[in-house]
Amino acid sequence: MTNGNKIIEMEVLRYRPELDQEPFYQSYEVPFLDDWSVLQGLQYIKDDLDGTLSFRWSCRMAICGSCGMMINGVPGLGCQNFLRNYHPGKLRVAALEHFPIERDLVVVVDDFMNKLAQIKPYLIPKQVRGLDQGEYLQTPQQLEQYRQFSTCINCMLCYAACPQYGMNADFTGPGILALMHRYNADSRDDGRAQRMELGHADAGVWGCTAVGYCSEVCPKDVDPAHAINQNKMGSAIDYFLRFVKPRGASQ
Amino acid sequence: MSAQTDKRHPYLRPIRGWWKRDRYYIRYLAMEATSILIALYALILLFGLLRLGQGEAAFNGWLETLRSPPSVALHSLLLLVFAYHSYSWFKVMPKTLPAIYWRGAKLPQPVITRIGVSAAVIVNLLVIILFTGLQS
């Protein structure tokens, strides 16, 4: 690996469950080139300075969502932030907030994965079309209703930005509620009623207090705060309609 | 449990002091705190309504209290709080509305906020003009 002339001090949050009672920061001097990302800095540490450091990564181009971490206290993708922007200051890298740390920068994502399955993140058509019937047709306007929310890469930065999730992990959380909206808003889908049982609950859209930081940190401009909060109106309408229409508005 | 999972010991960091972590959270809490002062002002107005029900003398007494220097100071503070509350309210507004399309394009969220703030300014000016007109 080619080393640059410039050197940055990277403080990385370490946690080795078999050795440590609690996490601590370990400092590394990392020589870097101008085009190096924070992820490349971590890779340099692992390859040349300390092979025991653990972190997740895959694509290096902000599409796999694996390298989410706290970079100087802000949730960000390691591959999307560049070391040059922090030089000559030092850089603090930590595991994503609000998730239990498995080891170093690796967090436990079980809660996220379980919740993701619960909202049925797939199309539930009213009538399944056979192959001979062709595609499900959709106009550009209908596509526009959900396109933005479909670009989520499950990086969980929005969870690290959400204090409501940090205080109460029962809250379904921004990313998954945005995905719920993504499928509900799809003209080909008819699963809203099934999904909104979770959406209407305290742990659903009402668990959000519109802090809005989720939308700020999202690397794909999904805007989860928008997806969640526009559902509060529908959720309230559903609540009141059940008095006149026992099975709810969404049936 | 396998030998591998025995070594697992996930560490959950405490959430205490979360709001100090980021300036964004401090702004959020400031926005939420304005609601408390706005509730207080609603109580002041409701108290005025109560005094109105008790007769002219009682209502004039309430009006007199409003003119006292501490009350004027409180109202100046409340005006600032209301201004920030209105702005932050309209800043959240685009998040609560379905996307609005204007001539085929999605209306940007800052535009929706600006429309809201402008509407609030216009309505307030109209109220001021109306009431100063009524008094003269």
What does this protein look like?
Chain A is α+β, with helices and mostly antiparallel strands and 251 residues long. Chain A folds into 2 domains: 6-107, Beta-grasp domain (Ubiquitin-like (UB roll)); 110-244, Orthogonal Bundle (Fumarate Reductase Iron-sulfur Protein, Chain B, domain 2). Helices cover 32% and strands 14% of the residues of chain A. The longest helix of chain A has 21 residues, at 224-244. The model of chain A has no long low-confidence stretch (mean pLDDT 92). Chain B is an all-alpha fold and 136 residues long. Chain B has a single domain, classed as Fumarate reductase/succinate dehydrogenase, transmembrane subunit (3 helical TM bundles of succinate and fumarate reductases). Chain B has helices spanning 3-6, 23-53, 56-66, 69-96, 109-135; strands at 101-102, 105-106. The model of chain B has no long low-confidence stretch (mean pLDDT 91). Classes of the chains: A alpha+beta (251), B mainly alpha (136). At the A-B interface, helix 5, helix 8 and helix 9 of A face helix 2 and helix 4 of B.
CATH topology of chain B: 3 helical TM bundles of succinate and fumarate reductases
Order of helices and strands of chain B: HHHHEEH
| Mean pLDDT, all residues of chain A | 92
Helicity range of chain A:
25-40%
What is the string of helix and strand elements of chain A? EEHEEEEEHHHHHHHH
Largest interface: A-B, 32 and 25 residues
Query: Strand count, sense and closure of the main sheet of chain A?
Result: 5 strands, mixed
Strand content of chain A: 5-15%
Indicate the CATH architecture of chain B.
Answer: Up-down Bundle
Could you name the CATH homologous superfamily of chain B? Fumarate reductase/succinate dehydrogenase, transmembrane subunit
> What are the low-pLDDT stretches of chain A, counting only 5+ consecutive residues below 50?
none
Biggest β-sheet: strands ordered side by side in the sheet of chain A? 2-1-5-3-4
CATH C-level class of chain B is Mainly Alpha
Number of domains of chain B: 1
Question: How far apart, in Å, are the first and last alpha carbons of chain A?
Answer: 59 Å
Helix and strand composition category of chain B? mainly alpha
